[in-house]
Amino acid sequence: MMKNICVAHRGFSGKAPENTLAAVRMALALPYVRWMEIDVQLTRDGVPVVIHDFTLDRTTNGHGKVKNMDFEPMRRLDAGGWKSRAFRGEKVPSLEEVLDLASGRLKLNIELKTSGDMYPGLEKAVIDLISAKGMRDEVVLTSFDAGVLQRVKELDARFRTGLIYDSRSGDPARKVKELGCSFLSISFTRINAGLAKLLAERGVKTMAWTVDKAKEMRRLAEMHSDIMICTNRPDIWGDTFLEV
Asked: Which intervals hold domain GP-PDE (predicted)?
């Protein structure tokens, strides 16, 4: 059996609406899902919420920017009906709700979704919540933004950080080292065996996203056993890697 860890992308988002408690619970129901990737932003009144887009339009029946809405009005939105009628009434979850479900059951790759100074205080709000729950060792905080990762380390150097990298050029291994990260989140199309080996030797975990086809999962597994496979379809990971 292959050892490549299965990471549920925004929960089991192939079947449930992404970044909802339904998607989280469906991922938790699969015993081989050991990690989950989620996205976190701040409401106008400073509550960390789990949602990917900077706007509400695609994944809820609301409109406008996440940062312009308070938590309680956001909770009244339907974040599941867009996926199917079966998920009508799903809410935009708070990070706290997801932490409570995941605690002691799987680890979390929490992407801090921000750009520039869009969310002042995002890093502190997330760190404080995770620390209050005693879950610092169960998470890695990731971002495309080097400044975000540096602020996390300044606030609490004990937190693991990870760089999200999607450039077609450059040296991700060097960038990770410069930022003091122990995790690299990278498009599966950008990774190769040499990079995976180098990062593993340096103690850096590599997660490849977003891999939904068995053929690509096998290709990554053949490159290196340490490559974590982030997928919308953890069931396909199970069908591909688990011994019958």
From this structure: 4-241
Nearest Cα to Cα of residue 135 among 124, 126, 147, 148? 126
CA-only gyration radius of the chain, Å: 17
Q: Tell me which residue of 3, 226, 29, 2 sits closest to 11, measured CA to CA.
A: 29
Domain layout of the chain by residue ranges? 6-241
- Give the Cα separation of 235 and 39 in Å (integer): 21
- For residue 162, give every residue at least 6 positions away whose Cβ sits within 8 Å of its Cβ, in sequence order, or none: 109, 140, 141, 142, 143, 149, 181, 182, 183, 184, 185, 205, 207
6-241 has which fold? Answer: TIM Barrel (3.20.20)
The SS3 of residue 131 is: helix
Q: What is the pLDDT of residues 144-200, one digit of tens each?
A: 999 999 999 999 999 999 999 988 788 999 999 999 999 999 999 999 999 999 999
Using CA atoms of 131, 134, 135, 141 in order, give the dihedral in degrees to the nearest 10: 10
- How far apart (Å, rounded) are the C-alpha atoms in residues 50 and 92? 6
Q: Check: pTM over 0.90? Answer yes or no.
A: yes
Dihedral Cα 145, 13, 92, 57, nearest 10 deg? 80
Give the separation between CA 165 and CA 8, rounded to whole angstroms.
Answer: 19
Q: Which residues are catalytic?
A: 9, 52
